[in-house]
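Bug #77: duplicate submission created two jobs. Keeping one. Sequence:
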Amino acid sequence: MTTLPMPSPFIDTLIFSKRMQKAGLQREIAEELAEAINEGQSRSIEKFATKDDIKHLEEKIENKLEILKRDIVIKLGGIMVLGITVLGYMIKFGS
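Kept job's structure:
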């Protein structure tokens, strides 16, 4: 599987500002707009999960699955013991 490089989450504020000026915006407005966009992107990126976050969650899920498997085996074993006991009583005392 080929991993593509992740695009930069930030814009080049100088290029953006110059393009906005070329489109007719005043320099100050274009620069503020570029900075506001970068700031907004920066804040939203803080909420992204990292590889370590995902790995940690995978480990937690695997641990919980192991506990569930163990609990199921214990409960099934208990049901089998109960069933064998009931069957033994039925055979010994008749029903």
